[in-house]
Design brief:
This protein has helices spanning 2-12, 17-24, 28-35, 43-53, 57-60, 67-119, 131-165. By secondary structure, the chain is mainly alpha-helical. It folds into two domains: 2-60, lambda repressor-like DNA-binding domains (434 Repressor (Amino-terminal Domain)); 89-165. The relative contact order is 0.07. GO terms for molecular function: DNA binding.
Length: 169
């Protein structure tokens, strides 16, 4: 029913799919999916469609609403609003945790660089007469070599993560 109403109202306004898509800030393929019943617009888009066509959302959906149903719909709308607020809060807390994780990762990498700079490669001056010391020297050198090559990339990644997950006002 909704798909037919969108198509009928679009044609009655003399708009092509492309023109209506531009007006609604969606791609033409999205509008085509709505008109073919392959997907449905979300609540905000239904309001935009009703404003564009100058019809109430209820008639866009093809329904007539009585007084009793209006009260039920209002209570459902209130419940949906509460759920949307809860989802938004959950998303914000996840973003905050991710942001703090990126900051912590950046700090740990910088601390690693500072520790390596302060200690230097003192293990290279050790005498490697016995096999265990030689293995330890190779192991420490391998860790240092890997850290020096990988840590800058990780630092850049974490700094980008900090920037992307920052709170935008």
């Amino acid at each position: 029913m909704l798909s037919e109403n969108i198509k009928k109202l679009r044609k009655s306004k003399g708009l092509s799919q492309q023109e209506l898509a531009v007006e609604l800030n969606v791609v033409r393929q999205t509008l085509s999916k709505w008109e073919n019943g392959l997907s449905v617009p979300d609540a905000d888009m239904l309001v935009s469609l009703s404003n564009t066509f100058d019809v109430p959302v209820s008639s866009l959906l093809g329904e007539t609403i009585s007084e009793k149903e209006a009260d039920t719909i209002q209570s459902l709308a209130n419940k949906l609003e509460i759920i949307n607020l809860q989802l938004a809060q959950r998303k914000e807390s996840r973003q905050k945790i991710l942001h703090i994780s990126f900051i912590l990762g950046s700090v740990l990498i910088i601390i690693g660089f500072l520790i390596m700079a302060a200690l230097g490669s003192s293990y290279l001056t050790w005498t490697s007469n016995d096999m265990e010391t030689a293995v330890l020297i190779v192991f420490l050198h391998g860790i240092e070599w890997l850290f020096i090559r990988v840590a800058p990339l990780l630092l850049i990644g974490t700094l980008i993560g900090v920037y992307i997950t920052r709170k935008k006002y």
